[in-house]
Specification:
Number of domains: 1
Low-confidence stretches: 1-15, 43-47
Number of helices: 12
Shape: globular
Radius of gyration: 24 Å
Helix content: 25-40%
Largest sheet: 8 strands, mixed
Length: 366
């Protein structure tokens, strides 16, 4: 067992953790970093019984954050992450070979997805966001008919069966009633309509979360929630299936961005409008705890470039989801026992294909 495991004893944690880290070898720091990621990963707040709602987020505070970020004169400097995720989401729309007559961009922000959508894919786009300022600045591709509407993602007032496509980019992770939101979305979709979205997953900013928790534990003897909880990828599929979506596709991406220090990361999160909005959040963090967290962040996760300069990585886990509203025209799974080839014979697949008989049809039978 590596000696780093001893740091979880109460006596060691009461010492100055920052000084203790300086004496660790690089191998010990790597082991500690891996353990911090596992123990600080947020548990999903969505694994609740049906019809239960846990009000985790302060929606009014989130609206103020988004409005403040959208009104900043340098707001474009902080669009890099959402623009990248929006581009990837738009690319998934292109993979569906059809033209959607009416689409909804839910939580559109400054048009992170809409600016990449082509008129060949969408004819009419309804852009909806809770922030009027962000909505007014949202960009869109020429040739698409656009309507803008201020909408809270938790209260969708659109008519049933009114959209062929609903998309959402990095917005739904702030929704308290995510199961209810999925129910509203599938209600608004037409039969055989598509829902595509991207949200932050549970491993997002695990480096920052772990550093803040270790610093507060060492300085104050306890921890406070400074990073909002995120959904777990395992629960998203269950929630979408419960809402009635079919042919689900769920996968994850990890985007790692380097920052000069922890403070630049926190500043950029504020510029994105992605600051903590949990109801039980503490409004202030002591200066010595912040400085300690910065040192811990650098010691545990800091990287060195070829030119000798250092940076700290920040991980953003993106959960991508896609689901269809049921329709009789969609392919149906076969009944159990109808398969002609057993999975245990997959290793003989080449032989099975060669032994398969082919029948030549006459012109009248074609």
């Amino acid at each position: 067992m590596l000696p780093t495991m001893r740091i979880y004893s109460r006596g060691i944690l009461k010492r100055n953790l920052c000084n203790l880290l300086f004496n660790f070898t690089s191998q010990e720091k790597n082991v500690l970093a891996l353990n911090v990621r596992s123990i600080t990963n947020t548990n999903s707040v969505y694994a609740l019984p049906p019809n239960s709602v846990m009000y985790v987020f302060d929606r009014e505070a989130k609206l103020r954050q988004k409005e403040c970020a959208a009104k900043a004169h340098d707001v474009k400097l902080y669009d890099y992450l959402k623009d990248e995720v929006g581009y990837r989401l738009a690319d998934r729309i292109f993979d569906i070979k059809r033209t959607f007559k009416r689409a909804l961009d839910l939580g559109c922000g400054r048009g992170h997805v809409s600016k990449h959508i082509l008129s060949e894919s969408v004819e009419e786009l309804i852009m909806a966001d809770m922030s009027p300022t962000a909505l007014s600045h949202a960009e869109v591709t020429e040739g698409i008919k656009v309507k803008r509407k201020v909408v809270d993602e938790e209260e969708l007032s659109f008519e049933s069966d009114s959209f062929d496509l609903i998309i959402s980019c990095l917005s739904l992770h702030w929704v308290n009633d995510l199961p209810g939101c999925f129910n509203h979305i599938i209600r608004c979709l037409k039969n055989d309509g598509v829902f595509m979205a991207a949200i932050f997953g549970g491993d997002t900013l695990y480096e920052l979360r772990g550093s803040l928790q270790l610093a507060e534990l060492e300085r104050n003897g306890g921890v406070s929630p400074h990073i909002s909880p995120f959904a777990d990828v395992r629960d998203i599929g269950s929630l979408m299936n419960r809402a009635g979506f079919t042919m689900l596709t769920i996968d994850t991406d990890e985007i790692v961005i380097g920052y000069p220090s922890m403070f630049e990361l926190i500043w950029d999160l504020k510029g994105m409008g992605e600051s903590n909005a949990a109801r039980n959040r503490t409004l202030h963090l002591k200066r010595d705890s912040l400085l300690a967290a910065s040192v811990i962040y650098q010691e545990l996760y800091g990287k060195t470039k070829e030119d000798g300069s250092t940076y700290v990585p920040a991980t953003f886990q993106i959960i991508n989801m896609l689901g269809w509203k049921p329709d009789p025209s969609q392919p149906k799974p076969l009944k159990r026992g109808t398969g002609e080839v057993s999975l245990k014979n997959l290793y003989k697949l080449d032989k099975i294909i060669k032994e398969t008989k082919t029948v030549k049809l006459d012109d009248e039978e074609k």
